[in-house]
Amino acid sequence: MTPTPSSLAEVLRQAEPDARIGWTEEDLSRMRASATTMAKHLAEGADVYGVTRGFGPLVAFPAAESAGEQGEGLISHLGSAQGEPLPPEVSRLVVALRLTSMRRGYSAVSVDFWQELVGLWNRGFTPVIPREGTVSASGDLQPLASAALAFAGQGEAWVSDGPGRWSRVPADEALARLGAAPVRWSAREALSFVNGSGVSLAVTLHNHQQVEDVVRASAMMTARMADLLGANPQAYAHGVAEARGQAGQTAVAAWIRSDLPAGAERAPSRPLQEPYSLRCAPQVLGAVLDQLSAASRILLREAVGTTDNPVSHGDEVLHGGNFHAMPVGLCSDQIGLALQQVAYLADRQLSLLCASETNGGLPPMLTPRPGAGSGLAGVQVSATSFVSRIRQLVTPASLTALPCNNGNQDHVPMALNGANSVAQAIELAWLVVGSLGVGLAQLAALSGRSEEAGPWARIAELSPPLDRDRPLAAEVRAVRDALAEEAARRADRWPLPEL
Questions:
Q1: Are residues 25 and 105 in the same domain?
Q2: What does the alpha-carbon distance between residue 461 and residue 437 come to, in Å, rounded to a whole number?
Q3: How many angstroms separate the CA atoms of 261 and 268, rounded?
Q4: Which listed residue, 103, 236, 241, 417, has the most CB atoms within 10 A of its CB?
Q5: Residue 65 burial (CB < 10 Å; 0-12/13-18/19+)?
Q6: pLDDT of 236
Q7: In the predicted model, is pLDDT for residue 255 greater than 80?
Q8: Domain assignment present for 459
């Protein structure tokens, strides 16, 4: 049997350009047994949703006599997704999740057809998947139907133009480049493919990884700020974390300590206790890590499970609701709420840097020319705007559910809507991170810290001292990118703690 991923990192690696979906004879045996159970069930005259009966509220009516007509009708009527496409790497993960779900042997799909899809995916075929238009209740129907239509030669596909470079072409052209014919979807295979949480799950997995890195960047900046200001390092002591016993807090405190100079002490000019945005960073960021750790276990189970309907189990064909994406939706909502706390913390730390009362008596807005210059005033206002917009975006999507489908889908999770919004919020959170990073570069310059090495030396180059006002938008983005790269590099030595 093909090994099951044991971490989210392993799941995400399934979508890398050189990744391949494989199988063992045991996998194929399970799949064949599942398909045999379905065939036996049908031969006995039993009804099967989507195969002998219609879809959704139309289950009361018989299906088309042709399995091909039924399957093509399913992906055609669901071809209503809209909006900007998911990034290619997310689209590849979407398809990988659906194909590995089918491989488990509960989906009763044709082995030959499954191998045809896997062959195309392994050769790089990547559908263009619009991100809007599903309630994620019967799975992410519309976006997954767009992927299915691409395999059938309709819509668009991504074509790799080299590492990290992609272009969009008509799907039939992408298939022709591979020397492949469009696939023909039959009823069971089409339903199994679209009836799952693969799109909301793929986006949420990428969001989860990004928020982990945002937390790492925030811990780096907290340590840098504490060092530059001479803040009391006791706030990050192991004893404080040990006394409480929270795994996330313990991890973040250790991360911050590892970035502080050996023997760091409180500067005589600093208060015994700093404002909460500096002193309580381990508690805030640690709480976020704990939420990410909890979500990672739920998302991993979803990624290695089977989320379509009906399922073949033993000698039974069981009708249920495994396609309902509530586990993903609630995780996504919580990730968004946690992200907001990180962005809010960074915004408050930037505020400390901009006020003479808390930045060590340096000029307000960290300008060397108060009055003639305004320094970081514009950057700080923009950061505040970003946090406000993040709060709008991370309002839990699960609170916005509406019944649809003639009352058949009367409880829906809106998981992909939420995941899409969180993805937008993450982009803004990184801009808040970049804004604080620029602030720290200016704090270092005004403090005479020009001897720095490592990532902070690079950031000093990207945001040189302000001798007079200049537009800082590009510097915020450049510093953001540098911090994001450094945070990703630290993932192995600053891992997500286990609860």
A1: yes
A2: 12
A3: 17
A4: 236
A5: exposed
A6: 98
A7: yes
A8: yes
DSSP symbol at 227: H
Within this chain, do residues 29 and 153 fall inside the same structural domain, yes or no?
A: yes
473 pLDDT above the threshold of 80: yes
Q: Are 366 and 375 spatial neighbours (Cβ–Cβ below 8 Å)?
A: yes
**Of 148, 168, 195, which marks where a domain is finished?**
195
Token reading at 399: 């609170």
Extract the tokens encoding 444: 């270092």
Question: Contact at 8 Å (CB) between 212 and 271?
Answer: no
pLDDT tens column, 25-57? 999 999 999 999 999 999 999 999 999 999 999
Q: What CATH code is carried by the domain that includes residue 301?
A: 1.20.200.10
Task: Quote the CA–CA distance of 368 and 376 in Å, as a whole number.
Answer: 11
Residue 1 lies in a domain: no
Task: Give the whole-angstrom CA distance, residue 121 versus residue 180.
Answer: 12
Q: What is the DSSP string of 64-127?
A: PSSHHHHHHHHHHHT---EEEEPPHHHHHHHHHHHHHHHTTS-S---HHHHHHHHHHHHTT-EE
- pLDDT tens-digit readout, 132-143: 999 999 999 999
Amino acid sitting at position 143:
P
Burial of 377 (0-12, 13-18, 19+ CB in 10 A): middle
Cα 295 versus chain centre, distance: 12
| Residue 436 within any structural domain of the chain | yes
| DSSP helix/strand/coil, 233 | helix
Instruction: Say if residue 232 is in the same domain as residue 172.
Output: no
Cα separation, 230 vs 260, in Å, equals 10
Of 195, 221, 256, the residue at which a domain comes to its end is: 195
Same domain for 239 and 177?
no
Tokens of residue 143, six digits: 């976006």
With b for 16 or more beta-carbon neighbours within 10 A and e for fewer, the 133-171 pattern comes to: bbbbbbbbbbbbbbbbbbbbbbbbbbbeeeeeebeebeb
Do residue 233 and residue 155 come from a single domain? Answer: no
Q: In the structure encoding, which two tokens stand for residue 91, read together?
A: 């689209």
Q: Residue 275: which of 348, 223, 354 has the closest Cα? A: 348
Give the number of domains in the chain: 2
- The CA-CA-CA angle for residues 278, 279, 285, to 5°, reads 75
Task: Domain of residue 300: give its range.
Answer: 205-489
User: Are residues 141 and 239 located together in one domain of the fold?
Assistant: no
In a domain, residue 239? The reply is yes
- Same-domain status, 411 and 360: yes
CATH number at residue 58: 1.10.275.10
Integer Cα distance of 177 and 454 in angstroms: 45
